[in-house]
């Protein structure tokens, strides 16, 4: 973890600001990807039950520990739980849970207090939802994991979370070009000419610039790749610094370009992106 800057959570835990995403990484490819990532120096792996590949991620971790490449205490593993992945009713619509997010947070706190995890956080929470859970919380969420990249820079929500001591984890930092619902004509962040221009200045790739953009803004970030050369490329960002002017310029690319809209949950009263809140 030596090269990777760290962040201190509000609970005092130190956490690497860079990790590997695993959504859409197929079970048959994720084990090798995680092994390559650990060999490269990644120490944070972002997982979820929903990604359907946690067993295979675990196999890679087990192997690298048994080889003596890392110790368990050097690794930072994030998971997100859920039972029935996308329950659907007889009418074909998603069946919503009637458990309130505040009650879920209280249950998450218990998991932490029992020592089953070192930190607990939230994901895709908007300002209003955070305010609701903070009213009852005895543990402040360590992080809010949210979509964040130059087309959706999340300035307001980041500022709000920081004011409450909540770190940001920027997901889909490359704009999630392999999201299943991407259309051929959708703009591709990694091919943006303006980002390419900045990248040329530093002899870096657009992906390296937009990952570094997050780290320099103080955000944890978790680009996904199953390709060894891109896993290495995304990690090779510690030898250059964007200027404050570069960062301010990239900030201007914001176009409310959200790509993860969670359409399955549209109509749910707690859908986080269908209100005026940020
Ligand atoms: N909490 C949530 O609701 C939530 C939602 C979305 C994502 N996430 C987390 O955030 C992680 C990252 O987000 P994401 O997977 O949506 O998208 P992403 O990391 O923005 O983009 C991944 C895509 O970029 C490609 N890629 C990787 N490195 C590249 C490079 N250097 N140059 C060009 N293309 C490159 C990958 O292809 P290859 O694999 O072929 O390299 C893949 O197609 C997820 O994997 C997941 O862990 C969380």
Description:
- This is Aldo ket red domain containing protein.
- It holds the Pfam family Aldo_ket_red.
- The chain has 278 residues and is an alpha/beta fold.
- Helix content is 35%, strand content 10%.
- The protein contains nine helices and nine strands.
- It has a four-stranded parallel sheet, with helices on one face. A three-stranded parallel sheet has the order 3-4-5, with no helix packed on it.
- The chain is globular.
- The structure holds NADP nicotinamide-adenine-dinucleotide phosphate (NAP).
- The site of NADP nicotinamide-adenine-dinucleotide phosphate (NAP) has 30 residues, from α8.
- The site of NADP nicotinamide-adenine-dinucleotide phosphate has 30 residues, from α8.
How is the biggest beta sheet arranged?
Answer: 4 strands, parallel
Kindly provide the radius of gyration, computed on alpha-carbon positions and rounded to a whole number of angstroms. 19 Å
Class by SSE composition: alpha/beta
| Helicity, as a percent range | 25-40%
Strand content: 5-15%
The dominant shape is globular
Topology, number of strands: 9
Q: Ligands in the structure?
A: NADP nicotinamide-adenine-dinucleotide phosphate
Whole-number total of structural domains: 1
Elements, N to C (H/E): EEEHEHEHEHEHEHHEHH
State the CATH class.
Alpha Beta
Cα separation of the termini? 33 Å
Poorly predicted segments = none
How many alpha or pi helices?
9
CATH-defined fold name? TIM Barrel
Could you report the average pLDDT, rounded to the nearest whole number? 96
Strand order of the largest sheet: 6-7-8-9
Q: What's the quaternary structure here?
A: single chain
Q: For this structure, what is the CATH homologous superfamily?
A: NADP-dependent oxidoreductase domain
